[in-house]
Design brief:
mainly beta; OB fold (Dihydrolipoamide Acetyltransferase, E2P); two-stranded antiparallel sheet; globular
Length: 92
């Protein structure tokens, strides 16, 4: 999904991004879902986290490369696959 934002009389298309944390959130815990990273890829200049929830649902999370780097730096393990994350998928 895209939303159009007016900036200085020109149109800029903004991508909808999901939210992801490497550590369990301390605020509004009921708004976050825990999942396990199954794969990490890049698509169209964005990072795509493939995550399986504790209920077995599979979901793809789209974030910026900067957010990906931040999340990876905060994970406990050496490799992201199998690590737990907490997320909020935009628009879902």
């Amino acid at each position: 999904m895209f939303r159009i934002v007016e900036i200085n009389r020109s149109r800029v298309v903004c991508m909808a991004h999901d939210r992801i944390h490497a550590r369990e959130p301390t605020h509004h815990r009921d708004r976050w879902t825990r999942g396990e990273i199954e794969a990490l890829n890049e698509r169209d200049g964005h990072a795509i986290f493939s995550v399986t929830t504790t209920h077995g649902d599979q979901i793809e999370l789209r974030v910026t490369l900067a957010v990906r780097d931040l999340v990876l730096s905060r994970l406990e393990g050496e490799h992201p696959v199998g690590e737990s994350v907490w997320f909020r998928a935009r628009g879902r």
